[in-house]
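Researcher: Go.
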Amino acid sequence: MVDALNIFAALLTVGFGLFGFVAPRYTAAALDLAPQGSNMGLSEMRASVGGLFVVAGAAALWLDAPLGYAMIGFAFAGAAAGRVVSLILDAPPRGKVLLFGGIEAALAIWLIAANI
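Model: Structure:
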């Protein structure tokens, strides 16, 4: 059961990353980050929201080791922590932050607890 959920979480990570990697304009719009005056934002989408997660998920699948899956969990924990800080300091759209942050937190909790 742990192996199946690890694989599912890694594939979900790759899937989320593919949105940023292949469709950065769509991802930017969904995250309220549409580029303004420069296409550097699209580059950032492909890199940090896309390629980073595609390769992290793929690497965990390739390594097929508990620490590989845990490392994805730590990455999601960092993302969820950033959303909490943003809720306190930035007043972003609460619904989106809670949805995305909830998914990140759930993945972080599972991947870390099941693999450490």
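Model: DSSP finds five helices and no strands in the chain.
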